[in-house]
């Protein structure tokens, strides 16, 4: 069996190995995780609720969100045979989202995801942890013109591009080599296109704001043509009537309707972050009586 060792100041509960081993024997092609207790208790509260409270079916339906793997990496446990089948971690260096890439490879090969519903790891939060060196975003507006470098925005609050090196960031004194200029965002979009969108002839993007428009622009042309509408609750966005994709090379430029969510039709790719609106978004979604996975997927 392969047990992901905890970081040096994380702590395992005495029963962790036994309980996760038992689950791995029952599910030999699954990554086995567990619930965690975060230290300090109020750090990353939304994320901690998410990884601890996902239902068993959501361990597979919510693999597209910005949170990443649906069982947190320090809790991973699987058979050595399955680990060898999936392949090694990407050892490309700091800034490579190795856990996400391995998790995607695991799912592509038919692997499952199981969580032992007991808190078996004390998971300590560090602002300078390697996790935070992985870039979620180097958007089109961030990369400089070919051959040039500049101090630009990225997933960090501050970022400096090294002179003459548009692919290297300095932050907090550490080098972060961007993963061949690809980003977590790009990996996530391509995985969505590979795993979910082929099953839908058409779909609606739930969020006519920046995040929804960004997803639309990031899609490959074939996937973009499946977007029949954006939907939202913001009357100001809805009053605009449509979103025009001005950067498109198509003529005429695509114009995508913006509808109230009750006037839109599923399936939806939801670009609204969970657990941020005091329950208003979740109430709206529940009111439609949809089935997650079949009628909608969370992407934000």
What features would you highlight for this structure?
single chain, 300 residues, alpha/beta, 6-stranded mixed beta sheet, 3-stranded mixed beta sheet, glycosyltransferase, glycosyltransferase activity, transferase
Write the layout of secondary structure elements.
Blueprint: E1 2-3, E2 11-12, H1 16-26, E3 30-39, H2 45-53, H3 58-61, E4 77-78, H4 80-86, H5 98-108, E5 112-124, E6 160-162, E7 165-171, E8 174-177, H6 184-195, E9 203-206, H7 210-218, H8 221-224, E10 227-232, H9 235-240, E11 242-244, E12 255-260, E13 268-270, H10 280-287, E14 296-298
Parallel strand pairs: 3-5, 9-10, 9-13, 10-12, 13-14
Antiparallel strand pairs: 1-4, 2-5, 6-7, 7-8, 11-12
Helix pairs in contact: 5-6
Organism: Equus przewalskii
GO molecular function: glycosyltransferase activity
Protein name: Queuosine-tRNA galactosyltransferase isoform X26
Structural class: alpha/beta
**Overall morphology:** globular
Mean pLDDT: 83
Strand ordering within the main sheet: 11-12-10-9-13-14
Low-confidence stretches: 137-181
Helix content: 25-40%
Helix/strand order, N-terminal first? EEHEHHEHHEEEEHEHHEHEEEHE
Rg, alpha carbons = 20 Å
Number of strands: 14
Terminal residue distance: 33 Å
| Beta-strand residue percentage | 15-25%
Q: Count of helical segments?
A: 10
Biggest beta sheet summary: 6 strands, mixed
Account of the 3D structure:
With 300 residues, this protein is α/β, with parallel strands linked by helices. It contains 10 helices and 14 strands. It has a 6-stranded mixed β-sheet with strand order 11-12-10-9-13-14. It is globular.
């Amino acid at each position: 069996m392969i047990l992901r060792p905890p970081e040096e100041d994380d702590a395992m509960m005495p029963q962790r190995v036994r309980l996760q081993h038992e689950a791995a024997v029952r599910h030999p092609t699954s990554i086995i995780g567990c619930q965690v207790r975060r230290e300090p208790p109020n750090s990353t509260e939304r994320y901690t609720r998410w990884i601890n409270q996902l239902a068993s079916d959501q361990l597979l339906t919510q693999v597209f969100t910005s949170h990443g793997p649906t069982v947190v990496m320090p809790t991973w446990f699987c058979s050595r045979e399955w680990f060898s089948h999936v392949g090694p971690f990407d050892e490309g260096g700091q800034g490579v989202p190795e856990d996400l890439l391995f998790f995607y490879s695991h799912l592509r090969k038919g692997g499952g995801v199981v969580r032992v519903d007991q808190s078996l790891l004390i998971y300590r939060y560090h602002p300078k942890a390697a996790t935070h060196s992985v870039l979620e975003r180097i958007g089109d507006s961030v990369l400089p013109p070919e051959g040039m470098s500049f101090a630009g925005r990225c997933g960090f609050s501050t970022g400096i591009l090294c002179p003459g090196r548009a692919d290297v960031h300095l932050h907090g004194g550490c080098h972060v080599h961007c993963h061949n200029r690809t980003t977590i965002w790009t990996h996530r979009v391509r995985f969505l296109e590979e795993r979910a969108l082929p099953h839908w002839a058409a779909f609606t993007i739930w969020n006519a704001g920046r995040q929804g428009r960004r997803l639309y622009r990031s899609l490959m042309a074939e996937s973009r043509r499946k977007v029949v509408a954006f939907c939202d609750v913001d009357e100001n966005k809805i009053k605009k009537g449509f979103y025009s994709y001005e950067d498109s090379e198509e003529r005429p430029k695509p114009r995508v309707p913006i509808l109230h969510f009750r006037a839109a039709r599923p399936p939806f790719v939801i670009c609204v972050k969970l657990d941020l609106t005091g329950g208003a978004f979740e109430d709206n979604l529940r009111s439609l009586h949809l089935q997650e996975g079949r009628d909608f997927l969370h992407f934000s």
